[in-house]
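Sample pair:
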Amino acid sequence: MLNPDIPLVDTKQGKLMGIVQDDIHIWRGIPYAAPPTGELRWRAPQPVTPWQNVRQADLFSCASWQDIEYCQALGGGDPGAFSEDCLYLNVWSPADRPQPLPVMVWLHGGGFTIGAGSLPPYDGRALAHRNVVVVTINYRLGHLGFFAHPALEGEEDECVNNFTLLDQIAALRWVQENIAAFGGDINNVTLFGESAGARSILSLMASPRAEGLFHKAIIQSGYTLPDTPREIALENGIALAEHFGLRDATAEQLRAIPADAFWPLGAPFKISPTPISGDAVLPESMLDVFFAGKQHAMPVLIGSNSDEASVMAVFGVDLAEQIQKLRRERRFGLGLIKLLYPGVKGDVELGRQVCRDMAFTTLGYVVMQAQQRVGEPCWRYWFDYVAEAEHDTYANGAWHGNEVPYVFDTLTLAEPSRNYVNENDLAFAAHIADYWVNFARNACRDCEVLPGPVRWPACIRGRDRLLRIGLNKFAGFKIENRFMRARMSLFKRVMKHHVNLD
């Protein structure tokens, strides 16, 4: 057994000294790949150069370049300093760990343009107190993470454009190589993430490069936007280079563009919040893989929130206009949609619910059916809890991302929740964190129920079941059968139609 007072570990790359807080060992700023700078920009991550002396791992690393104000307002807090040298991770582990513990690896959200593994909502102490090892990572964002240009073709043995996904794969390989030294079980790794992090997990479940690197998946508020085809990504890369005055750009010229020049770019040069399909990392689009039931087989927990449309308003989507567009174009039966939303009045509210379900809720239904095709269990949820003091602020339900500090049991650390939560909110969050840890510890092909305040059954053998977390914004749990089934069936057909058009 390791000395519980000394957070010293010996990794494949060298020794690391962390810190101790509340009987939890913490290591921050651990490099999992070489800095992707200079000639290594827009290349697959390379191995870390080993070190000889003990490396201090007490400070978080720099995050990838991004908009700090945007991240502070929407991404979970202050990400700290920025650098292209950003491929680092953080580990929380109980000081006393006599046997290998389940590992939970977190991929942060932020539309692939903001965020960091060091943000306050992602503090791993509360989960580690439940006897798991928690890992959070940074990865390349924006154009540094997803990029295609003819000048870069042929540089690698394979065609690669999804550098963000390759970073995440490199971090998972680091976990397989090293997490045993931190008390983790290399045969029980759960990958969990929200929004772009959830979308990353779906992509990794569809990627041949990620097979075998994780064993379970928790997908929080993943979204249904189609991947960016590689042909379009190449066109976008050419246009971006020309924006910087580089017609017929060389690889050397592209890599000479300052790293901080990309994130301030507005339309039409912003990246889509989706990976690129058609390279060696993601040969087929993620949605096509799940529609065909060809994803990597593993237990999955998936769900979304009751007011996911909140994030669309942030990105300038006019919810009422979406309904008016359906009315003008007479597509997909607006009359049928109204039948599926009885009692919903006005285009704004109808748009809120339709956009939420098309972009977020339906994905859980699609993944559930894909899981049943490969014979793996799927636990589904619908998160509708709002802190007691904030029912007026969140009048339409739980916003996109609101579940994250409940999952991590970090309501007292995260903004703005730390300013208004009460004991009832904290008790409810503890139940959510327990469910997530129980999944990481126990979920398997033969497991049908997760323990908790309500026994949470998996969707297996054609059963469509879902746990409602929060009932009309109040504390409570309830199992529902065939949740929104008619809506989900319609919107799945809409999704497949759009994928086929693409």
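The chain is about 30% helix and 20% strand.
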